[in-house]
Amino acid sequence: MDALPATVADDLRARFKSALLIADQAQLAAAEQLDHLADRLRDYAPQSRGAGFFGRLFDKKTEPPKGLYLWGPVGRGKSMLMDMFFARVAVAKKRRVHFHEFMAAAHRRLFELRRDEPKRDALERLADEIVAEYWLICFDEFQVFDIADAMILGRLFTALFARGAVVVATSNTAPDRLYEGGLQRQLFLPFIELLQQRVETVAVAGPLDHRQGRLAGRRVWWRPPDGAAERALARYFGELAEGAPTAPVALTVAGGRELVVRRAAGRVAWFQAEELLDRPLGAQDFLAIAQRFDAVLISGLKPLRAAQRNEARRLILLVDALYEAGTVVIASADSDPEGLVAEGPHAAEFQRTASRLAEMQADSWLVPRFRNSAAPAASSE
Question: Are residues 229 and 189 in the same domain?
């Protein structure tokens, strides 16, 4: 296996030169900042002087370096840059994780800690566990919508930073606009102040959406959701199942809940849109689906009205989970992706989701995952 270029910036310049990527100066500037952070982390490790409050005070020479918060419009390469950084940074205790996945696991572990030892501070113990396992945390898609997340972030991150954790994050939202419009947002503002103290904010806002312009090949977004579309989805389902029998599958979700997928075969699941959007499902349910299945088929997606804010939120969480897991999505719908949430409180946020759905139709996404399957080509049915 070829060695990685020495730095993220070197890697990016090589990709520009070979035309693997279109040159983007905003990406290059962010890459250089990531390289500076990697240099600062080379000789850093959290150090404490025993247990308790005073044990969390650091010598000035071991003060943790500020992390980085990469934010900007969709498709500007933020996740790619963070992954390039993560691959080469010389830190053993590191983790790259989708923010929703991290928070779902945090809520689950807090429940367990409070249940088992109710008299001890569960948040402090959770922070101890996290930093013992990894102290460089790279968050993809740092977004805060859930009041349950908002209410614990301040204390949790205060505890993590006190233990020397360093955070790198990507987001479509500037730090001072996180949880904008959320319930009791005034209680969330101290977290924003803390975050801005512990990370450098880097705008990655070049003129190009690098996800666009690559849609070619297999047709996986069928419009309208008519008989021809359903027949196409049935062919996909049969071919990708590779002979596995069709039967319901029960998934175990955080807290011991059971989520039943009514139509599954092998590593493929087929849902009606209302099964995913009309039920009270959340990030943990969608993560369980994404972890279990390599391909997810969805029939009958319809544009959501402004009043359907819960359904819109579920659609965003669903696509985030499937995208992060590298899942193939095949769907029939009454509109193109950008038309699914064109109004209401989540419309602006959904632009990122629509961009992801567009990327997930491209050959660069589909071909590696269909390597062992004869996927049906576009049809005139």
Answer: no
